[in-house]
Request: fold
Amino acid sequence: MKNKLFIGGLAWATTEGSLRTACASYGEIEDCKVIMDRDSGRSKGFAFVTFTTDEAAAKCKAEMDGQVVDGRPVKVDFPRERDDSRGDRGGSRGGYGR
Reply:
C-alpha cells in the first residue's frame, strides 16, 4: 500500500481540515488522521494521509516534503512497517520462572 503517507513535524495547531487542504492539490484524499495524545488531547505532531492512488501519494511526497504547513516545515514519507519484535510488550518483566 503505497498510497499512505506519514507527515511529521506538524504544528500543534494543525488540524485534519488544514492538513487535508494542504494535501488536496496532489490528488483525491481517502483519509486524513492527525494523531492525538490520549491524555492531553493535543496533537502528537504527526499524521497519516491516505490518497486514492499511489501516484497522488508519490507526488505529495516528492513535492510537499520540507514545505511549510501552518508555520512549520514538515517531513513527508511513506510509513515504516511496525516492528512488534521490539521486546516484551507487557506481561512478564523477567525474573523468576523463566
Notes: The beta strands are 4-8, 29-36, 43-51, 68-69, 72-73, 75-77. Residues 30 and 48 are 11 Å apart (CA to CA). Residues 4-77 form a domain with the Alpha-Beta Plaits fold (CATH 3.30.70.330). The two ends are 40 Å apart (CA to CA).
